[in-house]
Amino acid sequence: MYTLDDYLEAEQSFTMEEANKMHRELIDSLMDGVEYEMYDTIIKASVNYMAIRTRWNIYKEERDNDQRTKAHNAVIAAFDDLADYQEAHNREASWRDAIGYEANGKYYRKRIGDFGLYLAFLVGLEAR
User: Fold this and answer.
1) 117 Cβ contact partners less than 8 Å away, ≥ 6 residues apart
2) Prediction pTM value
3) How much is the pLDDT for 38?
4) Closest by alpha carbon to 54, among 127, 125, 116, 128?
5) Could you give the CA distance from residue 30 to residue 52 in angstroms, rounded to a whole number?
6) pLDDT higher than threshold 90 for residue 98
């Protein structure tokens, strides 16, 4: 069985405290309705990605790598779109630097997806 300790040993993983800090920086940076809508897009993409990702090891016969990759790409694009918008409007987007960029290597791609999963996890807790 996989635990948080196992995850923390992975390259470019983050602790729950680090994830909370990145999330706090992200939501504190939201300034207008467009940014809130973009955040909502991030959440929807993350929840969709989580639905696919969580089934990956359980339902191996249903694996669709193209679908998973598209969902992962949607999460990355949603983060990039918000950061690009904020930067174009001379706003702070340091949260995006903290998450990392796909161009920095494959483990950063995983880290970005992991952060999306963290956000989806929070959405699940919020529905409690």
Assistant:
1) 46, 49, 50, 53
2) 0.93
3) 98
4) 116
5) 28
6) yes
